[in-house]
Fold this sequence. Notes:
Elements: H1 2-13, H2 17-20, H3 22-27, H4 37-57, H5 65-73, H6 89-101, H7 108-129, H8 135-146, H9 152-156
Helix pairs in contact: 4-7, 4-8, 7-8
Amino acid sequence: MESARATDARSEHSPRPDETSGVAVAARGRSGRPGTWADLAILGVGLVALFVAARWFGRGLSFVVDEWDILAHHVHGDLLTPYNGHLSIVPIVIYQGIAHTIGVQSYVPYALVALVVFLAIPIAFAATHRRVVDPMLVAIAALGIAWSWAAEGNILYGFLVN
């Protein structure tokens, strides 16, 4: 009987597993829950608006010098040749893949790929930070990253995303 009381007394004063694990507490966020739908809705609406705005403002754009250089000089699969002093294998493969499957008549496929890659940055930021920081603040910060003026060229011109 006495050992049962001692066990109860120890369990009353011992911390619960979630109180000792900072990781478990941080994983739930400041409010104790993994966020609401409001922060995801704000982030989603902001990113969709950015997508629409980028497509609208980029509707008359075409290839720029860097892109023509990639399309012309890396045709034969010489992926290890540095471009402008940089090893740019992934963008070259993407550009050559689109050029060989769809062609170069329209800039839209190239711009769409670049825009999707760019939008992955704030999404990844939000996904990795919303469990540690207040999800609404993370959504606002992710939109700040996406809508910054420094990103304007990256949004409109595809090869700048590399």
